[in-house]
Amino acid sequence: MSGSDRILAAAAVGLALLVAAMASQYTVRFLVDPLGPRALPYLVAGLLAVSGAALLLRRPGSGSPEGGASDAAEPSVQPAGPAGFSRIRRQIAGIAALSGYAIAIPWLGFMAATTLATAVLARLFGGGWGRGLLTGIVFAAALYALFSLGFGLQLPAGRLVALLPGMTGG
Amino acid sequence: MSALQGLWEGFGVALQPLNLLLAGSGVGVGTVVGMLPGVGPINAIAILIPITFASGIPPESVLIFLVGIYYGSQYGNSISTILLNVPGTASAVVTALDGYALTRKGEAERALAVAAVASFVGGTLSVAGLVFFAPTLSQVAVRFGPAEYFALMLFALVALSSLGGDDIWKGVIALAFGLLVASVGIDPQSAVPRFTFGQLGLLDGIDFVVVTIGLFAVSEVLLALGESGPGQVVTGKLSRVALRVSDLVTTGWVMVRSAVVGFGVGVLPGAGGTIAAFLAYATEQRIAGKEGEFGQGDIRGVAAPESANNAAANGSMIPLLTLGIPGSGTTAVLLGALTALDVTPGPQLIGERPEVFWGLVASMYIGNLLLLILNLPLVGLFARILSVPRWVLMPGVAILSVAAVFAMSQSVFDLLLMLGFGVIGLIFRKTSVPLAPAILGVVLGPMMEKNLRRSLALSGGDWGVLFSSGIAISFWIAAVGTLVGPRLFAWSRARLRAGAR
User: Fold this and answer.
1) Is the pLDDT of residue A166 over 60?
2) How far does the CA of residue A125 sit from the closest CA of chain B (Å)?
């Protein structure tokens, strides 16, 4: 596990340098208080640099006792998702699906986007397309009822709907 | 106003139909999310904050609901722990030892019954402690100035990063990350934009709801995508819950003692339910001595941690409500919710917003009673929720996360930001970086900076002001103590062991 720890430590030190460099640009014309806007970012940079350095310099083996506990127990169960999808690819697909969902809401409308996103995610978790779509319709309807009918929030109907001939967006 | 008078008026608030309904649904939701591994109270509360805000109900009602989820989850977490050996939340890890052993002996119903009663005893006694201690602590805290608050917040941050159980340096990384997120946006004192990268969406800073849902809920879903978990199904049907008088006799004092232990641990920042449960379990094990069967299905091993983790949850409400300082991830999220509701927790809360404070406390009595009713006869019904397949549950969490943030901000930028925090949360989980210090940094960061800069402005830049009062100095000592203490203890024990060899 010390490999991923080393990457984490390097990232912390790198971020510390970046934060310090950016903070050094923050200038105020007259000093309102003795500390100014740079103090907190400098503290952040300092904490990141020190903890990153401490992780880097630590002797291997003296790390956290449960280091990498999340990876240690590899369950020998059949993968949940579609065949041929490795863990990391399922995770990337999940992030892509959720990003697509976020971007699609204003275009497809809340209901359609929610239905589709649920179906894709359900598939990634090993459910079937049909049942996933059905779950999506239930989720979309329930959330629409809660937000729109219950709380009176405006949920987007979708810009694409407005483009269809003979329909007025709303 | 005396405490009893306040409590009386609090019941007037808590017994209003809306608030009764919200207390009931809060503890119901809490039981379910506490039970389901992967959907903790922190995720549920974070997701429900924007949803409850959208509903436009008054602050005390929102709080009754959200806090109900928090203590309700401490009941629910024992259900999956006892039945499946899968702790619903970390604070139920200890319950698994004897709870699951009892299930394997075919005495699941007995363990569940005692867990419910223990949760009730721990919960109710600690609310009584809240009634007694909170007003007293408020009177002390009224005298705190910016220097005292700064030292106190530092103590809370150090305690959480140090006692989290994980690697301290990783806790510091998480904390620094949280502080960095907190500093994004226009600095209120100097009007300088920090880390905004020219993005309009970042000028006002990042909403803590976006950070919390991303770091906790979204990363949980992403983590689950990388795991190949089989759907956990409860095997065998539960018969009626078996509450035995003999069990109550054996565990009565165990529950009371553990409630006291849990409450004391809960009040301290950083420690929380898990440490409380461990401590109570270890104490009872020692008291029982050789006649105990701890680890092999001793009913006291269920009663002790369950009473303690409930008491700790309620105890942690004291620093939150009377000082405005959260000592854990969940209470940090609750603080964010309170601030967004325009309720400032702190020593003035009891005097200025008695309906919020006493209404909440009274609702906790009612909520604990409702939980006992939910958990004794209806436990079989709740246990059935455990067989909801993962392909419904996990997409549900993800969709709710997105929908909740969208309902709050109507901004795709915020949604993408949340997903970004989800990826960071996943990286943190994979490298065993604790998430709670990050969220505490996000919530406490702006307050700490404000108090530090204010006290230094008042003193004309003299740092001595931070150590000018006895209270401030004692917080500094406490902070250094929690940082050095455990390491010194471990070091001296290792020395002793080496010497004995």
Assistant:
1) no
2) 5
Q: Given this model, what pLDDT does residue B268 score?
A: 84
Question: What angle separates helix B17-35 from helix B3-14, to the nearest 10 degrees?
Answer: 90
- Which one is predicted more confidently, A86 or B163? A86
ipTM of the prediction: 0.83
Cβ contact B164:B171 at 8 Å: yes
- Spatial separation of the C-alpha atoms in residues B142 and B165, rounded to whole Å: 33
State whether B227 and A75 contact (CB < 8 Å). yes
CA nearest to B340, candidates B44, B22, B26, B52: B52
Nearest to B409 by CA among B420, B399, B401: B401
Higher per-residue pLDDT: A154 or B307: B307
Query: Does B389 contact A at CB distance below 8 Å?
Result: yes
Contact B420, B150 (CB under 8 A): no
d(CA B202, CA B277): 41
> Using CA of residue B464, residue B466, residue B472, residue B478, what is the dihedral sign?
negative
Size of interface A-B (CB pairs under 8 A): 212
Which residues of chain B have a pLDDT value below 50?
231
Give yes or no for a contact between B276 and B308, defined as CB atoms under 8 angstroms apart.
Answer: yes
Considering the entire predicted model, what is its pTM?
0.85
- Say yes or no for a CB contact (<8 Å) between B180 and A41: yes
Chain B from 32 to 91: CB within 8 A of any A CB: 51, 54-56
